[in-house]
Amino acid sequence: MASLAVPALPIAFWRNALASVAIAPVAGWRAAHPRPATPGAPAAGPRDLVLVGVAGLCLASHFGFWVTSLGMTSVASSTAIVSLQVIWVVGYDLARGAPVGRRVVLGVLLATAGAVVVGGVDLSISARALAGDGLALVGSLGVAAYAVIGGRARQRLPTSTYTLGCYGTAAAALLVAAVVAGQPLTGYAQDQWLKLLLLTATAQLLGHSVFNHLLATVSPMVVSLTILLEIPGASLIAAAWLGQVPEATAFVGLAMILAGMALVVLAAPPSGEAEAVAA
Length: 279
Hints:
By secondary structure, the chain is an all-alpha fold. The chain is built from eleven helices and no strands. The two termini are 29 Å apart.
């Protein structure tokens, strides 16, 4: 995203808006052909729609603050700080008294360290960079809240309905933010539109949409760990599409993330608040 010659808020808006357009036919078909309800599973209600809206606003805050931070601080610092989101989810679990074993903590720390290794380390300090770091921190809190809230809503809502609601809400909030900030939503060069489409197809549809699907059966903590795969994934996409060869540290960091995920998945119980609607 840092390579796009498009303002921050429009980047965040378009990836959610374009993804909403792509998901809408699937959600419409799913609504017209609902699967038989699982015996004993709770039905969706107005509270779930509220959760979807709140989750969408959290997603908007994540994208809005994080993408903005990329233009103010280094990609390394922003990436490292956003990687803290899984630690916030663990902190939430601890605060509500959920059991968090040592292997889970070790896995989370290992995976987070792996994300930092992929992103690199930047020790430069300036007022602008510190402000960007602060925005990245808010962005990490936003995606952590998005995972936690989504873990509840997805117990009663199908993936397509939940995803469309989240992306649509996020796009609407980011549209308002972009207009208020005076950032242009159109007028980009053709190659920039192609990059936006590629970003939407990969990070949004193949990334966040898969995370939304997993939230029904996997704990938000594990899903937060999988989100870390976006970081080395971006390096691999750059290698495949842009000819940018990843640094050796990208593969070391990826190995650390996968090892940390394995520790957590083997130690953490699945999300079991209720039997979920899978798709």
